[in-house]
Here is the input.
Amino acid sequence: MKRAAILDIDGTLLFSNEAHAQAFVEAARELGYDTPPVADVVRLIGMGGDRLLPRAFGLEQDEPRGATLEERKGEIFRERYLKGLQPTPGTRRLLERLQQDGYILVVATSANEEGVQGLLRQAGVEDLIQRATSAGEVDASKPAPDIVHAAMDEAGVGPEDAVMIGDTPYDIEAASRAGVRIIGVRTGGWGGEDLRGAIAVYDDLADLLRH
Here is the structure.
């Protein structure tokens, strides 16, 4: 019987939420837009650009200004931040254990397809991931359940044979709406109350592996 572990990347496998937020703010400032505090943008990381851009900057992803901002943010993130990021504790060991236990490993991320491989490489798990879905493949990003449904389709499993691991309330809502059990981790900066709805919440992936 197939089983799948659906994995968020940013804040779950990799300490990258703050770097994404910083890159957004730097790109907006460079382009002459009003910029919210980085801490406010951090709380939106985990959503796709279709949701983050209107909330943080008042721009739509599918309009030229929004598209330009998102493109420049990606350039800044890759040039200034990506290579300095560290995986969260236990990332590779947990994924190896899940693979040994027969789980299909599939990532479900709000990152675009271009950025997924770079993030997985930096997290040191690119060779372990068997499937990947990204924001560009679905109509609506987290907290909509589309990306979770896409991940299940990639793995060829239904909700009863899947479990998700994520770090934000957006992951919790997306998984719950897709009927998938989800385990929360605090490595993205969200606490236990924020992750209400998860079947369990751990400090990090190493903590999850120990239990």
User: Anything to note?
Assistant: Residues 64-81 form the longest helix (18 residues). The first strand starts at residue 3 and ends at 7.
